[in-house]
Design goal:
The chain contains five helices and no strands. It has 77 residues and is mainly alpha-helical.
């Protein structure tokens, strides 16, 4: 039980992003705009904007280019 808890905490530290945030970031890294990501995932533009803000906070990045670079360096995408 202790080992499972430790392993679970390590995985959270390695990837602070939710699966959906990772998916959004991967699409943005491929060059899609937020509007295109929203259309592709059948979500609203505002939902994507919220995901992007959360990504910025979690990766401590000021913009999408920095978030993508940080995610690539950390092996998140």
């Amino acid at each position: 039980m202790v080992l499972n808890a430790l392993c679970h905490n390590d995985s959270l530290e390695k990837n602070p992003l939710s699966p959906r945030e990772t998916e959004v970031l991967e699409l943005l890294a491929q060059g899609f705009s937020k509007k295109e990501v929203a259309d592709q995932l059948t979500l609203s533009y505002h939902a994507i904007a919220l995901y992007v803000r959360n990504i910025f906070k979690k990766l401590e990045a000021p913009n999408i280019a920095a978030a993508i670079a940080t995610a690539i360096r950390q092996g998140l995408i």
